[in-house]
Amino acid sequence: MGRVFISAGHGGYENGQIDPGITAGGTTEAQEMILLRDRVMSELQARKVTVLSVPDDLSQQQTIDWINSRARSDDVAVELHTNAALNPEAKGTTVYYITNNAERRQEAERLLRALLQRVPQLTNRGARPDAVTGTGSLLFCRAVTVPSLYVEVGFLTNPEDRYLIQNRRDEIATGLADGLLSWVNRSPEKPPDTIVYPQINIRVNGHEYGEPGIAVNGNSYIPIAIADSFGVDLTQASFVRRIYYRNIVYVKAVDLREFNIAVGWDNQSRAVTLRSVLPICKGQIDRIMGIGNTTDVQLLVFLKKDNPQAATQFPDIATLYREEASIEGVNYDIAFSQMCLETDYLRFGKGVSAAQNNFAGLGDAAGSAGGASFSSARIGVRAHVQHLKAYASTEPLVQEIVDPRFRFLTRGIAPLVGQLSGRWSSDITYGDRIMAILRQLYESAGLL
How many Å apart are CA 113 and CA 274, to the nearest integer? Predict the structure, then answer.
């Protein structure tokens, strides 16, 4: 039987100060998850499972380093978190796994089932790949060397979930222990003296690649030469996992998603598939000024996939973004992705209502608490596009100014999406969050 590494999310030092995680209802995410972690540990130890608890004062990267320096091949790791939303009605439990790993997906589903059997009052939000998260990946899923899962037990911002987390802690811990026990029992008890990884096939842009890849803990690894063939420079990409096996350097295929390479898996042929669409992937994907690549229908399908009711009030939103952005030379795919982030896929929040037609969290010149309001959806979209153009370009506007803060911006200071971080929003990952949505859009449309 393998061992279980268990980490309580947040609570450590990030940028020189304690990170409490989410704060809601007079408590913090770190406080609640430490208490839950301790209960899960007791449950597992009572069942004769060896548990290693990650120290609470470590940063995220230190947590991963701590696990990796101690892990053995048959160990597993889990990190406990809560979720949060502007809408206090949002609730439920999610288990995240590394994208394109069928084994890990099954383990996430098994852990989720075990938890919900013990606490059926929790809403099942499903086992989900980490690519659908706000930043497009989770470091705990990607960088931990042994199989790992990232659990969001519930929403700390939802009164019902918070009550369950605080008052049904024993049952939640028992459910998690049930799932973790099943997981480690399926691990090999002793690794072979000589590790032999099973071979997998590789398909690049629809063609069979002449060299096999390998499967490591259910993850696809490919020869690094394939990355070179895509023009991807991995020499400074420390986050990309590498394995030296039989005199060849292999890299984890899913990590190439960060370089705008679509990575999938074909179960029938046991092949990892990689695809790069050149019009999108020649380094222009994050440039705000440019043209979009999707159709109105593809934009609308993507929006409704996250929020089926999204187009009820704004049925022409996709067309408006394409038309208004094209007039000003702004990439409408980027503008649309930013709208999805700012409005939570047209659910709104942050003190902004749908009636304001404010799709980008724009403030007004007077600094009003509720932000800017616009007379129609088209004018609201136009203001968003103009605000993006103010940041990304020094070219004059084509249409009359409707953005109330256009004249206050330093023109052309942020031509790339990542440069909006700390400017449009105080969130230093703001640009990454937009890019994660953009990549999901292109994958949904079959363009990436």
Answer: 32
